[in-house]
């Protein structure tokens, strides 16, 4: 029987995960093609997407896991604040906004470990 195979649960997870996410992606593409660039609904979608990203970022800063859990709160908040300021000063370049906080966190971890 196919359900007794060792790979059957993995296949089920892959198919279920693909269906659960891809349906919404395709519906988003279909609906998005009909929206005007400056429409209120598109502005709302962007605002919700931005809010979700910021909520995940805040969760990682306030309730970290893994290596981040070992860093002090001031280091995480400081790296995020400086990274955001540099992101704005650099003309909103995402790569700069990602690299600067990572470098600050790394330097902070190294400095704290040397004590």
TrEMBL record:
- The record lists the membrane-crossing segments as 6-27, 47-67, 73-89, 94-112
| Domain of life according to the entry | Bacteria
Alphabetical keyword list: Membrane, Transmembrane, Transmembrane helix
What Pfam families does the database record attribute to this sequence? Answer: AzlD (PF05437)
User: By what name is this protein known?
Assistant: Branched-chain amino acid transport
């Amino acid at each position: 029987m196919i359900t007794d195979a060792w790979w059957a649960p993995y296949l089920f997870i892959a198919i279920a995960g693909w269906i659960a996410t891809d349906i919404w992606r395709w519906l988003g593409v279909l609906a998005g093609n009909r929206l005007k660039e400056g429409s209120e609904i598109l502005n709302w979608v962007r605002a919700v997407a931005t809010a979700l990203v910021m909520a995940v970022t805040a969760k990682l800063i306030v309730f970290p896991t893994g290596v981040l859990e070992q860093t002090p709160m001031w280091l995480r908040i400081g790296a995020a604040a400086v990274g955001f300021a540099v992101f704005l000063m650099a003309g909103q370049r995402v790569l700069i906004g990602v690299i600067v906080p990572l470098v600050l966190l790394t330097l902070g971890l190294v400095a704290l470990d040397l004590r």
